[in-house]
Amino acid sequence: MMRSTHRPAAAAGAAALALSLAACGGGTGDGGTSGGGGTAPRLTLGLNAAPKSLLPTVAVTGGSTLFYTPVYDTLVLLGPDGSPQPMLATEWKYDEAQTVLTLKLRTGVKFTNGEAFDAAAAKANLDRSLKAGANTQALAALAEVAAPDPATLVLTLKQKDPGVVSALGTSAAYMQAPGTFDKPDAATKPVGTGPYTLADTTIIGSEYVYKKNPSYWNASAIKYDEVALKVLGDQNAMLNAVKSGQVNAIQMAPGQKDQVTAAGWQAVAQEIDFAGLFLFDRTGKVNPAMADKRVRQAINLAVNREALLKAVVGGLGTPTAQIFNDGAGKSLDPALDTQWAYNPERAKALLAEAGQSNLKLVLPTTPLAKTLMDAVKQQLGAVGINAELQDAGPNFVTDILGGKYAASYFQFQATDPWYMMQFLLMPQGAYNPLHADDPQLAALIDRYRAGDAAAQQAVLKEINAYVTDQAWFAPWYRVQTVWAVDPKTSVQLLKGWASPYVLSFAPKS
Amino acid sequence: MLSYRLRRTLSGLRQLAAATVVSFLLLYAASGDVARNLMGESATREQVDQKAAQLGVDQPVWTQFADWLGGAFQGDLGRSWFTGQEVTEAIGIRFPVTLSLIVGTTVLTALLSAVLGVWAGTRRGGADRFVQVLSVLGVALPGFVVALVLVTQFAIRLEWFPATGYTPVEVSFTGWLKSITLPVVALTFGGMVFVTQQLRGAVIDTLRQDWVRTLRTRGLSSRRILFVHVLRSAAGPAVSVLGLHFIGLVGGAVIIEQVFTLPGLGQYTIGATASGDLPVVMGIVLLTAVVVFAANLATDLAVGWLNPKARRS
After folding, report:
1. Predicted TM-score of the model (pTM)
2. At A378, which CATH number?
3. What range does the record give for the signal peptide (chain A) (predicted)?
4. Which residues in chain B (270-289) have CB-CB distances under 8 A to chain A?
């Protein structure tokens, strides 16, 4: 299945405050297990896939955060509740117009190759992220980055932007030693200021071994001398590794929950991603019928979300018709979950009203999503929508982002509302490939951008209701992301994030 | 014998050239927008085009092939487009894993097949029926099922072997032996069937030959007739099948590598092919072609030594 990789990975090498709390605080609320305070020689995690590269310029979301954050620190740390906390930047403040952000940087920090971390190094990293790579959109609000002195970084924004500080805690702000930017082995011998360094025993793509950085600026946050990330793509191998005690924690497939807990492990879940059809063609550029919101609403009404959820992910999720959540994986507006509840008769009526009783809709698919898409095709067919599935193969993402299709299946990490607006709703958003521009929605987004926290929360609900009513998407359900840990290990999950940090794990005392 | 070797070498080089050209063209045709995959979904078209130019994928296919070939002749297989790792380094790490598997499996297959094939072919009766039943099981049970049974019993229940992972031989010999034992046994279970059957049949046929009867009348011991004369005559077809089995394992060990999460070439190849990482795939193709060529040559030479008539074919 295709899953979102748009979201810059939450970062953090050393979470001084958050991790101290995680390690010592015992209970960790919704998404965590009880913590421990000791240290241990080795932590081994079983993960589904490895990132394409360890270069910050291609760093993306999900489980891959775990591969980067041992090596790269970020300027701020996104804490367990998602709020920015000090990291390489110790404090920050906006000017009155909230278009100039001044950050004070931690002094005395060095990259593991001996280079000094200072404002010039931070500027070099942000400038590079702005110019190229997977994170340009995350920093799109920046007009200029300045380093007036070694401990001060000044970011000038094009306009007020509620997401900039949070972006400094993501892969957009992974701090790599500037002297290694152009080195050919920068991706295999990554150099940052983080708590670990990549060991020579690493087998890229299979097993990543990290050794403790002895001169880390926050040594007390390091709980393991060595961390190994084993890529166990095969689900049986994952279970075998659990049963034989070869790993301490895994990112788990939904169907494994019973077997993993039977082995004495603890499973903790969050609903982060939403899956569904992205109805890109809101202006009818590719398929003119899609410009009619009744057609898009009919597509929403045609799908039996409960049945799909049960068939595809074993029921581990929540059916919904909205794309936003409350930041903790719960419905932002519970009423909207059922706004487009399965109603094939009403779908047929809407299509007839729109004069599209024999609508043809081309949907891209991949071999992995074939079973799911066959079920969707069948359900759409039941209301008279003739869905033609086209195997897009390796071009799936390129094709959908290139605007080739009027609609497509996708699974997307729905965490930060502002990022979602930037990527999904704004005319230049990567996941708005046909550049739909709705003045009413644009005005709402502007109000969100300009408002304070309370106003933003209110406007977000309006945006959510509007997008759901206009059926810009046909979401089916939010999917559970599950982590499981053995009895010797504790983990602090980050609210709304698919992956914890390496420093979020601790041995139980 | 010299001209025989020369002919085989030239034939192997032709196959090597054909394999690289065809693989390159297939990859070129099947790969998607690599630069887009590399740059991420939010990169602009200009950034993607810039990356494509940097990789050289904006060039005509023959220019790209010539560039790759020029580097390969100088021992430079380039770097992975995605991980940035040198292809020779990546292969150097992973090849020993796959080689451990296929050599271990071939040796175990040869030993077990020799014992079972000769036993069934000479004793017949109950021994033969036992080998036949074993053969049916070997064909019927897929390797990954055998692997899962082995893991459950010997790794999880008895904890004799690790369930997943690989220990390099330079780190620990016993660790290495433990990490490859179950995968090798799983691969051998199915593979030995064909070699055993081949040898069994050949032994039965050979034992019926007139010259064997002549040897018996001359007073040679049964043991000497079997191990010195019959086995040499009967081993040719079995060695050919063993050679094919070895070659099949180069690509066929993928599932077992996956079940045991061994960092061999199999998973690496699948990942590189899926992402369109052309330098990596071409490096693996080149290595595989060389291994196949060497295996074929060794098999031909072994068969030629066992049966001098084969040298004239």
Report:
1. 0.80
2. 3.10.105.10
3. 1-25
4. 271, 274-276
